[in-house]
Amino acid sequence: MDYNDAHVIDDNESITKMSKDNIQILVETNDVINYAIQQNGGKVIRNICIKNLSENEYDNLIVKISSDNDFINISYVGVQNLKAKEELNLKDINININGDYLASLTERVTCSLRFAVYMGDEEVTSVTSYVVALAYDQWPGLKYTPEILTAFSMPNHPVIINLIQLASQYLEKWTGNPSLAGYQIGGSDRIKQMAAAAFAAIQKNNITYANPPSSFEEFGQRIRLADAVLDQHLGTCMDLTLIYVACLEAMGLNPIMVLMRGHIFAGVWLIEDSFPDTVMDDPSQLEKRMANGINEILVVECTSMCAGKVCEFDEAVKIAQDNVSNYAEFEFAIDVTRARSFGVRPLPVRVKTDTGFVIEHKDRIDTEITNKPNQVGETFDLSNLQTESNVTKQLQWERKLLDLSLRNMLINLRFTKAVVPLLCSSVSMLEDSLSDGEEFKVLCRPDNMSVSGDGGIPIEAITNLGEFEEFIELEGKHKRLHSFYTEKELNSCLTKIYRSAKSSMEENGASTLYLALGLLRWMESAKSTVVRYAPIILLPIDITRKTANKGYVMRMRDEDAQINITLLEFLKQNYDVKIDGLDPLPTDDHGLDLPKIFAIIRHGVMSMPMWDVVEGGLIGNFSFSQFVMWNDIHNNCNMLEKNDIVRSLIKGAVDWKCDIPAEVETDEAYLPVTADASQLRAINMAANNVSFVLHGPPGTGKSQTITAMIANALTKGKTVLFVAEKMAALEVVQKRLDALGIGDFCLELHSNKATKKAVLDQLRKNLEISVYGMKTEYDEKIQNIHNMKSELDSYVKKLYERRTFGKSVKELIDIYETIPDNGIEVKFSIDYAGKITQAELDNQRRSLEQLIAAGKEIGNLNNHPLAAIKQTIYTQSLRMDLEEAVSDYKNVLMIIRKDVDLLISIIKLEKPVSESEWRNIESIAKSIIDADTIPEFLFNADNIDKEFDPILEYINDNYVLMTRKSNLCNIWNESFLCMDMDKYRIRLGEANKKFFGKSKAINLIVSEIQSFAKCTINETQLPLIFADIEMYQKQVVEVEKKKSSLAFEWKQIIEKYNTPDELKSYKEQLRIQRSLVDKYRNLINSIRNSGDYETALECSRHVVNDFEELTKSETKLGKILNIDFGNSDGNWIDCRENLCHMLVDNASDIKDWIIFRQSEDACKKQGLGDICEVYENGLPNDQVMNVYLRSIYKAIIISVIENEPVLNGFTGNGFNEKILQFKKLDDEFMQLTKDEMIYKLTHNLPSPYESVEMSKELNILRRAISSNGRGITIRSLFEQIPNILKKLTPCMLMSPISVAQYLSFNVEPYDIVIFDEASQLPTCKAVGVLARGKNAVIVGDPNQMPPTSFFAGNTVDEDNLDIEDLDSILDDCLALGMPSTHLQWHYRSRHESLIAFSNTEFYENSMLTFPSVNDREKCVSLIKVDSFFDRKNGRINAGEAKAIVEEIKRRYKDPELTNMSIGVVTFNISQQTLIQDMLQEEFSKDFAFDKWASEGEESLFVKNLENVQGDERDVILFSVSFGPDEDGKLLLNFGPLNKQGGWKRLNVAVSRARYEMIVFSTMTSDMIDLKRTKSKGVESLKNFLEYAEKGKLHIPDISSFEKERHGILDCICSELEKAGYKYQIDVGHSKFKVDIAVLNPFNEDEYLLGILLDGDTYRQSVNTKDREISQINVLTGLGWKLHRIWTMDWWDNSKKEIEKLLDKLNDLVYDEHHENSEEEKQDFQLTNEEIVNEPEPSTIKKMSPFGRIDNTDNMNIDTEKIKNIVVSSETDTKEKIIYSVIDYESADIGSVLLSSSEYSMKEHFDEIVDRIQAIVDVEAPISYDNLLKRTLRSFGIARSGNSTIETTDKALKKVNAKIRKQNNIRFYWKNDQNPDTYGFYRNDQNQSDKRAIDEISQQEIKNAVCITLESKGSLAKDELVKETIRTMGYARSGTALVEAVERGIKYGRKTGEIMLSDNKKYIIS
Fold first, then answer.
1. C-alpha angle 1331/1334/1339, rounded to 5°?
2. Element (H or E) spanning 1767, and its range?
C-alpha cells in the first residue's frame, strides 16, 4: 500500500469577480468530494461572499448555483437586501448533491460549479469554482479527515454476512457455541476466539495479496470493496483490514485500525470500550493496553490471512504487536466504534448490473486455516483498585522527605556505572526465586553478545533478548544472572556498589542496596523528546563475594520488598496520577505478584502519552539527600508513637496532660545570664517538664534564652538535645555556652560531615576533666535574693492590689488627683471608708448623679420655695388633689384667723403671733368648752378625791348589790326576791312540828317555793334559801338609804356613770380636764362673772372646730406632699398662708422637687446625708460630685495606707537604696550561679566505680579513643556508650539529619529537645528528633520565614487535607494547641523606629520595645534611586545595586561610620549576585576595602529574603530591586512576596538592623495600587515604603479605648507646662512607655529627661529584676536620663516631688547650655515665660489624646529661644525697678451696639482694631481672654463665638503691641513697656469687673511680692504668701491665689529680684 504518498490539493482559494454594478462575488469551496464524504455530511461550499461596492442599495438578489454535469441539482440562495458598501457572507450553504452520480463514478471527475448573481432576471455577475469528485471506492488519503476511512468498512454487506456465518462455524467447532453475541457472553477469551474465527473465515477464502487496483488518480487510494475482494480474491493490506474490521463490527465487536507508515493493522477491543477520540496518535496507549495483565486490545496482521501464508491467529497477533511497538513508524489509530458514534456511516452496498468477470477460485484446505487461538492469558480486574490502608501521618511525613527532583535516581535513573543492568527473561520469576531464598550468581554478559552504539546502555535492550532469550532463560533456571557489562566492568561496578552499601549501613543504620524490578518509562511533557526511567519495585538484597575469583552472589535481605513510593508521590504531585491498589503490594504464592503490579502501573499511566513499563531489572544503591531521615521514620513507627507530641500530631489533638505546673511561676532558675520575665518563664517551663511553643519575635533574645534554658537544665541534672537546621544557629548557642564555661559539656554534631576524630577528641577531653570546686554558697545567697525580691515586690503588689472598693490604691490616687478641689470636704470615717465596697460606691455615685440631675432641674436649692415638701413619690393624681387641698387649707386658715380674733376680743387677750401662741388660743378654747362640761361644784372643788369618795362607796355597794341580784335572778324569779321570808320560815317551823302530815306540809312549802325557782330544790335547802334572800333584802335597804343621802347633782352624774369603772374613768377624765382647765380657771371664772361666758363658749367651739379642720387639712396636705410645716419666724398663720401661696405659685415645679426628694432620700439611705446637706446649703451642681469623690476617695486611700505598713512606711529614697542593694546582690549571685553550674556538671561526670555497665562503657570509649575510632562509626559508638555519653556531654547540638544519622532510637530519650528556628523546619524533619526526647521546646516565630519552598513543587496532599501538615513544626504544634509562651522584650534595635514597623504591621504591637532618647528622629530612611527594574535581563536593578555599593564605600571611608557592621538584603537572588559581583570588582581595586569587608567579628554580608533570617548587623541596606521597568510599567509581581505568607519574608528583612536601615528603591509607596492585588505581602511592602519615606505607621484608631491620661501624670504635666517645659507623654511605639519625656529646649529632636512613674508600665513587669534594674539599665544604655516619681511620695508631698523634678530639670538645662555654648560661662535657669512671635491662637500648644504634640511645626523653639533663659551674673547691670501699687485704670471707649453677625462684617473691622488698640494702650499688660471680653462688651456682645473670636484674632494682628506667653496664656504689652523692668501691681478689687487671678501677669504678681517684702522685710514663705494676698487687695485667700503668689515668688527668684536668705526667709535683692 502506498497511501502515505497520497495527497489532496489545497482548498480552492477565494474566486472573485466584479460586475459592472460594482457587485463582487467571492467563493470558497472544498477541493474534493466523494460518495463517502457526501453521505457523512461533508460540505462542498464553505463560504459565498457578496460585496456591494457601490453607493446604491439592492433588494431581492438571487444567487444561482449550477454545475456542468449531474454533480449537483441547481440550487438558489436569496439575498433580501444588500446595503451600500455592505459585505454579506453566506456560510456552509447546503446544496443538493446528486448522490447517485457520485455512486456511479468509477474514476475521478473534475466538476465545475457556477455561481451567478441575478437582479430580477438579469445576471449581474458570476464566478466558477472547481471540485474534484472521486470514484465511489476511492479514499481521499490522510490529509483529509482520516476517520472517513471507516466508511469503507461495510459490516452490512452481504459478503460480510456470509463471512461471519462461516466464522460462527469455526466458533462452534472450537468452542461448541456458534453464537456471535459480541461482548454479551464470555470474557476476553471469547472475544479473541470471535476475532480468530473471523480471521479463519477470511483465511478460508484464500485471498491473494495484490497492489491497489489500477486507476488514473494522482492522489488517494482506490479500495477494493468487500464484494470486489471476494469476487476477485485479491486484496491489499488496506482491503483485507477493512474486510476484517467489517466482520468484527458485524459480530458486535469494537474494532480499530492502526495505520503505520506504509502499512495498516486491524485491532479489536477485548473489553467493551473505545478510545475517547476517533483518531488516537499515542502508540503507548496501544502498547499498554496490549500488555500482559491488561489485555484490553489485540492487533492482527491481516496480510497473514493471504494465500501462500500458513499462519496461526496467535502468530498474526504477535507480528502485529511487534510492529505496532515501533513508535517511529506509528501514524495513528482509528477507533471504528467511536467514528460510528460521531456519525461516520458505512458505504451502502453497490450492486453490479452486469455479470462482470468470472475468476476461477479455489478455497483453502482446512489444514491451512488457523486453529483455535490460545487463551488471552490472565487479565487482572483493575476496575475497583483501592488502597486498603488509609494515608497516615507517618506516611505523609515519609512522602515529604522524599526527593522529587530529577537528581534523585528513584525518579530519574541514569544508566551509569553506578547501576548494574541485568539480562533476565522474566523479572517475575527472578523475584519469586529470590523471595524463596534462592541465591543468584551475578555474571558478565555472554561473550558473543555485543552492544551497539555509543550512547551507553540501551535500556530497552535488557528486555529484548532476541536470540539470547532461551540462553538467558536457561541460565536463570541454574541461578545465574548475566549483566550487561563485561567481566571487568561488572567487578568494578559491583565492588563500588558493595562498599557504598556497607558504608551506608554503618553510618546511617540502613542499607541502600536494592534490586530494581521494572522501570517506568516516562517523559516530562508531551512535547519532550527525552525519555526517562524510574524503578518500580525495590527488592532489598545483599551481594557478597565468597572469594576473589568466584565473583559476587546476590540474595534477598530479610526485609520486605517495597514499591518506589518516591515515584508514586512524584506522579501524584507532578502529573496528578494517583495509582491505587499497591498498598499493600499484590502477592502470589512466592512473593510479589509482579505482573499484576506492572498492570496496575500501566493502568494508572494509561492516559499518559508515550509512558509504559519496561520489565527489566538492575542492581544499585538507591538513596537521596534526606534518605537517612526518611529511613529513620520509616523503620521506627512504634518509637514515634511513644512520644507524646508525635503521637498527638498523628492524632491531630493533644494526647497528654499539658498543664503548666505552678512551680513555673515560683521556681528559681540557675541563671548565669540576664533573663527577663518572659525568658525566665520559658526557662522554668522547660525545666519543669513542660512541652511548649516559645514564640520569639525578632530581636527578643531567642539565643540568649536557649542558652540560659540549656544551662539551667544541665545544672538541674537534665539532658538536652538542641536542634537547628542552620549551623550558624548552633554556633551562636555553642559560643554562648563556651562563654559560660560549660561548652565542654556540649557536643556539636551538625551534619554527617562531622569527623570521628573531632568527636573522640572532645570525649577524651571530657574524660580528662577532673571533679573540682567546693560546694558554693548558692543556697544561702538565693534566700537573700528571695527576701530582697519580696520586699521590692510588696510595694507594687500592695499599690496595685484590688481592694474591696473595686480599685487599687494607685488607681484611686490617680483618680483623686484628677478631681478638682473646690475647697469643701465632707468627713467620712476611716472605719466606714475601709469597709465600703465597689458596689456601694457605684450605687452612691449613681444615686448622687441622679440627685444632681434632679437638682439641676430645680435650680438653686438654698431656701427653695418648695423646701418644706418631703414627698418622695409622685403620682398623676397628686397635682389635681393638691389644688383642692391647698385651697381647703387656705380657707381653714382664714376662718381660724377670724374666729380667733373674735375669741380674743371676748376674753381680752393679745393677738397671737407664733405657732405656740396660736396653739395656746386653741387650748383656751378647749378649756372653756371643757369647763362647761365640768359640774360647777366639781369645777370649784378644792379636793376632787374627797368629793368622789362617798359616791364611789355608794357605787361600789350598788354594784355588789346588782351583782348579787343578777346571780339570784339566775335561780329565782325577780318577784321572789321581794317576798317575806319570815312567813315561809314560820310555815316551815309549823310543818316540822306536825307528827302527821309533816311531809305533806313541807312538800307543799317546797312546791310553792319551787314555782319561783329556775332549778330543782329540796327541803334541806330551804333554811339557806330563806337566809340568802333575807340578806339580799337587807342590802337593798342599805343601798337605798345611801342613795337618798346623795345630792341631786351626784344623782345626775351616777345616772350616767353607774359602775365603779365608769365613775373612776369619769373621775380621771375630770382630773385631766381640771388639770387643763386649772391653768385658765381664773380666766374662765372671770368670763363667767362677766356674763360673756355663753358667747365665749360658742366662739370657743368654733375655734376648736377650726383647729380640728386645720389638722385634717394639714393631714391631707401632708399625705399628698409630706410637708414638713416646721417652725416659722413670723406670724404663724401668715407663714402658713405664704406656704400655700408658694405651693400654688410653684405647682409646676413640684414634680421635679419630688423627684429631687426621691433621689435625696436614696442618697441618705446610702450614707450621703452630709453631702445632701452641703448640697441643699447651696453647693453648686458641678461641684457636688467633686466634693463627694474627693472626700470619699481620700478617706478610702487613708484607710488603706494606714492598714498597709508597706505603703505607710514607703519613701522613695529608701526604696531606691533597696534597688541598689538588690542590683549588687544580683551581680554577685550571677557569678555564683556560674560556679554552681560547673560544680554540679563536673560532679556528674562518669566514674568507673559507679556500676559494671558504666565501667564497661568507659572501656569501650577508651579503646575507641586509643585506636582513633578504627573500625567503628560514630553511630555505633554512641549506641555502645549511651550512659556515659549523656554524662560526658549531657547536651548535644545537632541538625535534624545528624540526629537521624548518629542517634539510635534504642537509648534513653533526652529530657528536653529544643528546636531553634522552628518556623523553618518542616514537621517531617522534626518528628524523628521529637521522638528522641521526653519533652520539647519549639522555639520560633510563626511570623517569620516558613521553610523555603518557593522554588519547590507542590507537596500538599489534596486527598488528605485533614491530616496534611502545616508549613512547619512550629505551625503544627500551635495548631495542636500545645502550651505556648512569648518572648516579649525586643533588644536588638538600638532605636525603636527600626522595629516599630514590624511590631505594628506583623505583631499587633505585642512586642515590648524600648523608646529611644531621640525618638523624634527615625533611623529608617528611603533613598529614591533613578533606575528601573530590568525584568528581561536577569530581573535586576543595576541602579540600586550601584547606589548600595557607593553607600558601602562611603561608610568604609567615613571614620565615624567605618566601625559599624553592614548587611545588604535584596529581594531576589539575581540582585544579590549583581551586588556581590559589583563589590568583588571594587575589592579587586582596593585590597584594604576587601579586608575591611571580610574581616572582623561581623563581616559584610549580601543576602536575599530567603536566607537572611537569623542574621543581624548595625546597618542594613535594603535593595527593593523591583520597580517600574524601562517603559515605566510596574507589575505587582514581587516574587515570593506575593505568595501566601510572603509577608513573613518582608518581616525578616526589615527587622535585621541594630542602628540604622536604609531602603534603596526605584519605586515609592504611592506607585503600588492595592486594588490590583489582594496579597498581604504587597500591602505590607507598600506600608513599609511609606514608613521609610514618611516615618508614619499605619496604627489603627485606638482613641475609643485608649486610656486618657489622668492623675499624677496629669498634675506633673501641668506643672511642667507652668514651668515652661515642653514634653510628650507615653513615649514609645509599644506598650512599654516612658511616662513623660521632657524635650530638650536646645534640640527638640531629643529628650532632656525621662520621667518614670509607677504606673501601668511599671506594674506590667512582673519580674523584679526587669522592673527595677534591667529596664532602667536598657533605657540608660540608650542615652536616657531618668527621674522617678513614686506614688506614695506624691501622696505624702506632691509639691516636694515637683520641686525635686524642676530642680533636676534646671540642672540638666544648665548642663545642656554649657555643652552647647562654651563661650558663655553663666548660670542659666529656665523661666516659664515664652516669647510669642505669632499671635495666632492656633500656635497654642495642644496635646493629642495620645499625649503627643499635634502640631510639631509649632513646637520648634525659634532662634531666640535663649530668651527663655534668664542670665544673672555679677557683671550684669540691670535698671533698678521701682515697685508700687496703683489702681487699675480701665479704658473709656464708650459702647456701640452690634450683633455677632454685624461684628464680623468687614465695614466694622477698623473700628474693632481702634478699640482694641485703645484698650491695650490703657490696660496693658492685659491677657488675651480679658482683652477679648472687654472688646466684645464695648460692642454690646455678651458671649464670644467662633466668628467673633476669628474676627478679633484678625484685628489683633493689626494692633501695635508685643506679646508674652506665660503659663500658656498670652499677655499683650504696649510696645514702650519693658516686662523686665515693669514694677507696678494694679489693684482692681474695688472695680465691678475684676480680673481673675490667671488674668494677672506674672510680672504684676511678682511686683506685689516685692512690694510686700519692701514693706514687711524678710518673711517665711507662708507669711509672704499671706501678706502678698493682702497687698493685692484680696480679703480672703484661696487655692488659686496661693498658687499664683507662689508662682510669682518663683518667677522673682528666677529674675533675681527675690532671694532666699540663709534662715530660709525671702528677701528682696
1. 80
2. strand 1765-1768
Checking if the pLDDT of 1752 tops 80, the result is no
Q: Which three cell numbers stand for residue 153?
A: 468498512
User: How high is the pLDDT of residue 1652?
Assistant: 93
Nearest alpha carbon to residue 336 among 244, 206, 470, 456: 244
Q: What is the spatial distance between Cα 531 and Cα 523, in angstroms, rounded to a whole number?
A: 5
CB under 8 Å, gap of 24 or more: what pairs does 703-707 form? 703/729, 703/732, 703/733, 703/736, 703/1316, 704/673, 704/674, 704/675, 704/679, 704/736, 705/675, 705/679, 705/1339, 705/1383, 706/733, 706/1314, 706/1316, 706/1339, 707/673, 707/733, 707/736, 707/737, 707/740
φ, ψ for residue 1159 (rounded to 5)? -65, -40
Q: What angle do CA 1460, 1461, 1462 make, to 5 degrees?
A: 115
String of DSSP letters for 624-655 = -TTHHHHHHHHT-HHHHHHSHHHHHHHHTS--
Sheet with 297-300, strands from edge to edge, namely 279-280, 330-335, 255-260, 263-269, 297-300
Cis status of the peptide bond prior to 820, with omega within 30 of 0? no
For residues 202-212, one letter each, b for 16 or more C-beta atoms within 10 angstroms of the residue's C-beta and e for the rest, the string is: bbbbbbebeeb
Taking the CB of residue 1927, how many other CB atoms lie within 10 A of it? 21
* Residue 446: count of CB within 10 angstroms of its CB: 14
Bond into 1821 cis (ω within 30): yes
Asked if residue 1167 lies in contact with residue 832, where contact means CB atoms within 8 angstroms, the answer is: yes
- Mutual orientation of helices 1694-1716 and 1608-1618 as an angle, nearest 10°? 50
**pLDDT of the residue at 1638:** 93
Question: Cβ atoms within 10 A of the Cβ of 905, count?
Answer: 11
- Angle at which helix 313-324 crosses helix 188-204, to 10 degrees, equals 100
Report how far Cα 29 is from the mean position of its chain's Cα atoms: 69
1035-1084 pLDDT tens trace: 888 888 877 777 777 877 777 777 888 877 877 777 777 776 767 777 77
Q: Which helix (H) or strand (E) holds 1176?
A: helix 1169-1176
- Dihedral angle of Cα 1392, 1395, 1397, 1403, to the nearest 10 degrees: -120
Query: 0.85 cut: is pTM over it?
Result: no
> What dihedral do alpha carbons 1163, 1164, 1169, 1173 form, nearest 10°?
70
Instruction: Give the type of residue at 123.
Output: E
Q: How confident is the model at residue 1442 (pLDDT cuts 50, 70, 90)?
A: very high
* Contact predicate 710/719, CB 8 Å: no
Q: Which of 100-109, 348-357, 834-843, 1352-1361 has the lowest mean pLDDT?
A: 1352-1361
Q: Which has the closest alpha carbon to 712: 1290, 1296, 1383, 1329?
A: 1290
H/E stretch holding 128:
strand 122-133
Alpha carbon distances (Å) from 858 to 1148, 1154, 1175, 1570, 1910: 11, 10, 13, 59, 52
d(Cα 1026, Cα 1008) in Å, to the nearest integer?
A: 14
